[in-house]
């Protein structure tokens, strides 16, 4: 097989490296901030990769506008005990006393 299918088997010498596929890491839902406390569940991880910090070296999700002290999620008060986490500090600034 290696004799007749060198290209398929990856045995051909190449002067340039093979391009690596790129994979964008975006949220598949618009309300991921509302489910930040559930980032440990598989479905939330699937649809909210960016919000849950599963993008590797991608930048953190955008913070709410700094002109006013507001929570970016509707359920921040429910999870106020988790204000020590970076995601809560980003999306629940008012509840966590960040601003």
Automatic annotation (TrEMBL):
This is ShKT domain-containing protein. InterPro entries: ShKT_dom (IPR003582). Disulfide bonds join 39-52, 83-96. SMART domains: ShKT. The lineage of its organism: Eukaryota, Metazoa, Ecdysozoa, Nematoda, Chromadorea. It comes from Bursaphelenchus xylophilus (Pinewood nematode worm). The keyword Disulfide bond applies. Keywords: Disulfide bond. Gene3D superfamilies: ShTK domain-like. Residues 1-12, 25-55, 69-99 form the ShKT domain. The keyword Disulfide bond applies.
């Amino acid at each position: 097989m290696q004799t007749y299918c060198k290209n398929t088997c990856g045995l051909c010498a190449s002067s340039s490296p093979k391009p690596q596929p790129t994979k964008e890491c975006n949220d598949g839902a618009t309300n991921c901030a509302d489910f930040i406390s559930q980032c440990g569940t598989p479905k939330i991880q699937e649809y909210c990769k960016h919000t849950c910090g599963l993008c590797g070296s991608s930048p953190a999700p955008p913070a709410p506008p700094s002109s006013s002290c507001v929570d970016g999620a509707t359920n921040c008060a429910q999870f106020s005990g988790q204000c020590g986490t970076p995601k809560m500090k980003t999306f629940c600034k008012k509840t966590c006393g960040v601003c």
